[in-house]
């Protein structure tokens, strides 16, 4: 997501042509979750505009289409995968990872299917898998099985940490909506590859969000010192302040790892004036 109604006129200029929105978002953050590709595979022309609006080091973590992961559950997906990989080709190296988000019903017994799917992916693409069956987190045998399968293709395991969100009952409409929709996932602070990816869900209260991400600041700093290149996505139920929170997270990591490059300077939401 690189546009949000509550950002318009506050963080991003408004009105802003569709072909300019990603460019302005990229002034705030240097990575984005490509969640829209889950619902429909975009045209190559559209994806080409994404590449035009971002620098060569910008990271897209692009989610595989729903028809691949949920409808067909990674089986008989040659045609939709060919169409998807062709569509994102204009991104080049910006396609940092293929985000394989699996449904909660995809459990340890389905690991052979995942293994076959990952082996068939082109070597040019790095997969990152998000699982939602609790057994992968609570059953040591299932954990080891998944880790071994991912290791075969240098695939990462994406944790979706919702523990901070579910600590206390919701206090806003956005939180109440998320309370019924988001999975209650355990926290898993483990990197399998040199490119760990983290998804973190906080609260609409920024202070609560910051309080809940402490473990991730420490983990990210540790990974950087180990020579890894982590990517962290910060969410809240309403996402109203997500870009500013993401920058604050980055600043807290830089306080521990000063050699980490700063994020780019945002393009002003309003033109500067003399008065």
TrEMBL record:
Pfam families tied to this protein: DUF72 (PF01904)
Q: What is this protein called?
A: DUF72 domain-containing protein
Organism (species)? Verrucosispora sioxanthis
Superkingdom of the source species: Bacteria
């Amino acid at each position: 997501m690189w546009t949000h109604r509550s950002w318009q006129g506050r963080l991003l200029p408004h009105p802003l042509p569709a072909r300019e929105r990603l460019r302005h978002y990229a002034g705030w953050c240097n990575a984005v979750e490509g969640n829209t590709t889950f619902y429909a595979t975009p045209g190559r022309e559209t994806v080409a505009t994404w590449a035009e609006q971002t620098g060569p080091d910008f990271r897209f973590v692009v989610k595989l289409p729903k028809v691949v992961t949920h409808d067909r559950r990674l089986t008989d997906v040659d045609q939709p995968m060919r169409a998807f990989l062709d569509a994102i080709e204009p991104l080049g190296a910006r396609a940092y990872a293929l985000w394989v988000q699996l449904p909660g019903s995809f459990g340890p017994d389905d690991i052979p299917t995942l293994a076959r799917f990952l082996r068939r992916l082109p070597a040019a693409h790095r997969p990152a898998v998000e699982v939602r069956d609790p057994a992968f987190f609570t059953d040591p045998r299932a954990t080891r099985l998944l880790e071994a399968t991912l290791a075969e293709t240098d695939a990462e395991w994406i944790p979706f940490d919702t523990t901070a969100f579910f600590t206390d009952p919701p206090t806003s409409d956005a939180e109440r909506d998320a309370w019924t929709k988001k999975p209650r996932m355990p926290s898993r602070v483990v990197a399998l590859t040199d490119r760990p990816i983290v998804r973190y869900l906080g609260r609409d209260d920024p202070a609560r969000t910051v309080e809940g991400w402490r473990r991730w600041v420490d983990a990210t700093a540790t990974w950087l010192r180990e020579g890894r290149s982590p990517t962290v996505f910060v969410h809240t139920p309403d996402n109203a302040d997500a870009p500013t929170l993401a920058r604050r997270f980055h600043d807290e990591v830089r306080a521990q790892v000063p050699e980490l490059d700063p994020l780019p300077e945002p393009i002003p939401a309003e033109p500067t004036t003399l008065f």
